[in-house]
Amino acid sequence: MKDIQNQRDYRNIPIDQVGIKNLRYPITVLDKAKNYQNTVASINMYVDLPHKYKGTHMSRFVEMLHVLRPEVSLKKFSEILENMKAHLNAASAHIEITFPYFIEKKAPISKLPGLMDYTCRIIGSSNRDDKTDIISEVIVPISSVCPCSKEISDEGAHNQRGEVQLKTRFKKFIWLEDMIELVESCASCEVFSVLKRVDEKEVTERGYANPKFVEDIVRDIASRLNKDSNITWFSLSAENFESIHNHSAYAHITKGEVPDFKQ
Fold first, then answer.
1. What CATH number is given to the structural domain containing 233?
2. DSSP per-residue codes, 62-96
């Protein structure tokens, strides 16, 4: 049958990234407590397209996902990136896998268990020099109490849920759980899925005793990351969905060595 994608294109315009987006696919990821966890990912896969080709073979992206089985790992990422380049005649390849990751957390006083879900993402790229770049990302819900509100109010202080986004490059494997725990420890208080009244009292008072601006949160996290020799680069942001304002509060820090990585 005629291969339209491999036909010549005469516009002389290369494409930086071409591929598939938002493909839902079952995956298995490493779980620190239980070894493995099954989840469902949303996957983006791209390669570059030289100017001479009319198109790429979209179906091959899906076929190559079987390389990820049975689990998503750094080794598997490198394998699939190299397979993408080889099977699609590309010089560079890029893949993003986004998935919910579940951790069982017990309420602070009643100790009742509940499942917290965190959005996690692994981003991998391989360039024409066969250099691979991997970024691990977690998005963590948090709770914060406003220090200014506490200082100026005769009673109470306003608090709100927030969200911290942390991306890291690293020398060796880093657990998602460790990234999540680091973020939660730097908030006014953690967020839980199950709370009885005794727990609600505890987390309310814990947050009130530990007020933090978004600036405090990102600085506390950055301070911890700066001391970790395994982390070579990080990008982190905190956003508070303010309870008494019609806007969010936001802070961002990026620090570390960015690899000389050209597609």
1. 3.10.270.10
2. HHHGGGG-S-B-HHHHHHHHHHHHHHTT-S-EEEE
